[in-house]
Amino acid sequence: MTVIEVENLAKRYGETVAVRDVSFSVEPGEIFGILGPNGAGKTTTVECVAGLRTADSGRITVLGRPAGDPELRARIGVQLQESELQDKITVREALELYSSFYPNPADWRELAGDLGLTAKLRTRFGKLSGGQKQRLSIALALLGNPEVAILDELTTGLDPQARRDTWDLISGIRDRGVTLLLVTHFMEEAERLCDRIVVIDKGAVAALDTPAGLINRAGDEQRIRFRPSQPFADELLTALPEVRELRHQGSRIEIIGSGNLLHAVISVLARDGIVAAELTLEQTTLDDAFVHLTRGE
Amino acid sequence: MSVFTKLTLSEFKLTLRDPLYVFFTLLFPLLLITILGNVPTMQETPPELGGLRVIDVYAGAALGLAIGIIGLQGMPAVLATYRERGILRRFATTPVRPTLLLAAQLTMNLATVLVSAVLVYTVAHLAFDVPIPEAPFALLLAILLNCSGAFAIGLLLAALAPSGKTANAIGTFLFFPMMFFAGLWAPRDLMPEVLQRIGDFTPFAAGQDLMTGALTGQSPEWLSITVLMGYLLICGAAAVKYFRWE
């Protein structure tokens, strides 16, 4: 059974078309990512899935029910962008209060522990740092023991350590059987966490694939940079079928190519007794794939 | 404990953490009564007041002040801020409806008014011999009607204002003329006829008349009741129609 099914979703605000045509489906236990440039329609899409907005056309079902069905509110956890709390409410009060909204709430103490909020339970929301507010917001989304969690820009505003901790937490949530729908603009986050990604651009699906699949579509260009221990003739390497281009950058050499590039280059250099110092290899990343897929015409 | 009770208590706790709210709704009316009670001219009984002293009328005015501050300034700003900061939207993602948060706010504010009323009339009675209302139920009804009118206007302000700051600005702008007509600066019965008749149709003046009436045990004025019910129905319906949750 698919957990989330979106078919030909369209939504406009007055004259502005936010979503033109988006379709995807999310399988149980999956971490499904929605990626796209600013204004692509990501947030509108998840808000429709969460039942906060009504689609103009198209069909959305969540856990077998139409999006917006009141019964779903207890089964979906949602973390929205720019959704705050009262400045004067403490972390503990917020967790206790929001727990009481759900028929089968999680243990808020445990959640606070998992999200590193235990030391902040008596702190008022207004005194929390951006990262702490964000973590509280994630905790509130998970309080109801949801079957599906929708997290919009969950690590925006977090420092790198907190971001990594949150990723571990997200993997942990998935291990509990929760299906996750993530909106993100961090490629590293999408690559690390997501099983599949839909790339939305200008209100429509630009691609839907695994992170590796998306990278492959952008071509498998690789870049090697190194400082040779002694000079050599360019032809030595440009003759290789794997090498497409060779550039000199001061004392360093950059080689662009594909296939088994690294192995081919190193073999030739080793044969002639040349040592490649300070060697780096760059492969196509999700970043490159993203730019490739969403490049404006 | 029901979710509604929890929410109301939570709203209470949060509100009590705002020193300005506590000061203006609970302490300021008492302060006003205490200061005015010590002004000798307040003990006079002008013939227009039908046997009441000026200070007797001011007990109601002090409470009206608290109701006005809550209805025109406190509540609309809080609710508009709840919308502005996405608190209502967060509620919309939970099994609890955002309407329940509005209801909790209204209940909390009404309870504050009732506490303020007990304080004001107790101090006024003990310190300045303001009579215990001849018709306590009529007084309670007067307070409830006064709150209905004021809170309905407040809800409409919250519905129309784009932000908490704007809500507060509009509320303050309305507050002074309305309080003037209600007789905060000079008792209504001492005003020129024209101002009194205009005042009849403003909510706090209507509320003030009902409270003064309850003090002397007169039967409530139907005009005042109708005016306040009118504000409740018209502003309330408009607030429901125009309220935006985000």
Automatic annotation (TrEMBL), chain A:
Report the main location listed first in the record.
membrane
A Pfam family of this chain:
ABC_tran
Q: What range(s) does the ABC transporter domain occupy?
A: 4-227
Output the Gene Ontology terms for molecular function.
ATP binding
Q: Does this UniProt record's set of keywords contain Transport?
A: yes
PROSITE patterns named in the record: ABC_TRANSPORTER_1 (PS00211), ABC_TRANSPORTER_2 (PS50893)
Under the heading CDD domains, the entry gives: ABC_DR_subfamily_A
Q: Where in the cell is it found?
A: Cell membrane
Q: Which UniProt keywords apply?
A: Antibiotic resistance, ATP-binding, Nucleotide-binding, Transport
Q: What is the protein's membrane topology class? A: Peripheral membrane protein
Q: Does the keyword Transport apply?
A: yes
Name this protein carries in UniProt: ABC transporter ATP-binding protein
Biological source species: Actinoplanes flavus
From TrEMBL, chain B:
Superkingdom classification of source: Bacteria
Report keywords, A-Z: Antibiotic resistance, Cell membrane, Membrane, Transmembrane, Transmembrane helix, Transport
Q: How does it sit in the membrane?
A: Multi-pass membrane protein
Q: Where in the cell is it found?
A: Cell membrane; Membrane
Matching Pfam families: ABC2_membrane
Q: What is its main location?
A: membrane
Where exactly are the transmembrane stretches of this chain?
20-37, 57-79, 100-124, 136-160, 167-186, 222-243
Question: Which spans of this chain does the record mark as coiled coil?
Answer: none
Q: Where is the ABC transmembrane type-2 domain?
A: 20-246
Q: Which family does it belong to?
A: Belongs to the ABC-2 integral membrane protein family.
**Protein name as catalogued:** Transport permease protein
Q: What taxonomic classification does the UniProt entry list for its organism? A: Bacteria, Bacillati, Actinomycetota, Actinomycetes, Micromonosporales
